[in-house]
Amino acid sequence: MLKSVLLRKALIIFVITTAIALAVLITSYTLLSKDKHITQKINELMPVANAAALLTTEKIANSLDYETYAYLCAEMADSVNSYIVFVETDYAFQYLSEPVNDPEFMRGLIRFIAENNEFFTGERYYSKHLEINNEIYVCAASHVYNESGTILGNIFIITERAKILSSISLSNYTIILSALIALPFAAVLTIAGATHALKPTKHLVLVAKEVSEGNYDAKANEKIKGEFGTIARAINTMTDRVSNMMRELRLEKRQLNQIIAGLSDGIVAINTQGKIMHYNPALMNMFGAVGVSTKEELVPHPEIWELFDAVLDTDEVRMTTYHTEDGRAIWITVSTIYDDENNCAGAVGLFKDATEMERLENMRREYIANISHEFRTPLTALRGLLEPLADDMIPDEETKHRYYNVMIEEVTRLSRLISDMLTISKLQSNALAFEIEPVNVSEKLKQLEVSLSTTAAKKNIEVEFDVQDNLIAMTDHDRLSQVLIILTDNAVKYSKSGGKVTVSAKYVKDFSHLITQPNVAVSNPSYNANKCKNKIIISVSDKGVGIPAMDLPRIFERFYTVSKSRTKGSTGLGLSIAQQILDAMDETLIVKSVEDKGSTFMITLTPFDPERDKKYLN
Q: 0.85 exceeded by the pTM?
């Protein structure tokens, strides 16, 4: 019943207030009623004194017999619980009620009368503080006259002051007892009334509690009368507004989280104490974080967090490029976060993996440098030969003829370079058309054997062909020829005199073991074990200079040459063209090479399937 804090407080206030009011009432009543009671007692005694004085006058005039007189005086004394004494002017006295039988009392009374001679002056007299023998009395006096109007004495009505005060104490006790008896009933009525009055607050408290816990559908009863109804309407209005605001905030937060989570760049925000407030999955992937509880677990590089500390200290934007141990380049921009009062609330960092961009930039620089070099070499040679011819500095025809042959070779080289560059450009822009059709690989390699043997014979190089019969692949006839010419020309070019070049072709069910061997490079990085099944593999092997392990990952880049001394006369575009042709046909080029021991270039082709590839036969 008293679970309500408000009800308990109301009851406690009621009890305390009632107790204080009761104490003040009793104290005030005790202090103020004492004198009032004495005055009231005197007013009660005075008529009795007057009546006794009249009876005494009649008694003196013999109009009333003594027995009747004594009886009436005793009855009047008992009615006011007092003593009646008649004191004559000569201080003779007689009792008109139950005698005190105390001579000392009468002597004290006579002494008091003698000291206050106004008793016999004809004035009405009373005393609230009559002290006789250390006892306090209250008295009222009335004169007794004879027939001529002479004062014969006074009738004194005397009451002990203690009796009057005892009656006051009894009244106080009665009041206190009544109050104590009435207090529980008043408390019960107060509790019942307060419970009924505060009943709507319980409902409002429950609604407010549900709203504070996030249940914005909770509604207060607006039909409650009075102030509680007004509070209920205010709570419902506030709940609706808060609900709309929270809905908008959740929507904005969800959209912001989706945007941040969808970014390919990493983002992290920290507060002024250095604790992480937010980060996105891209940043976790960038640094390989799994479980994140501290900023060091998210980004395990103290130098980066020192950059955040510097931004928090100086309130300035900081940008840097951080190179990790695994060779990645990360662009980092850190700026300050401000609160509503434009004070620093933390810092936010944007992380962008610029490894590929830096690699492409380096390739662009190398590409431009290589183009410049490759064009400059033949042009310089042509200029060096044309100038003496133009100046008629070559007298004999034999030398001129030799100059012309060199010039033709340089022009041919320049033409081949431009042709290769155009081919790469078309491949990159998907402008080069491919005609996929069934191609007899066995017949194709037999045709290649004739031209390759002639070329290899000039360098005293042996050529060997090992080709499985009836190999038919779905490929582009001309592009396959172009790739094979590039690979076989390289094999002859980089083989030593007296060496050997081997060309083989066979159907392989699974060659995934080839791409996992050491000293192996794959042109198509997406080529995995699932693609290494059911392929025709054409291999071109030589026993030439080989390729160093450090150069293998870059041999498919444009204009990249292993060593100028080893690749004299090479443009560095052949393997790049072969790679892009094979990539366009969803095939790959696999290179296995050991320096000074030779290289093997393998290309994959998809075997012809009459059922699957019948659309290409029309």
A: no
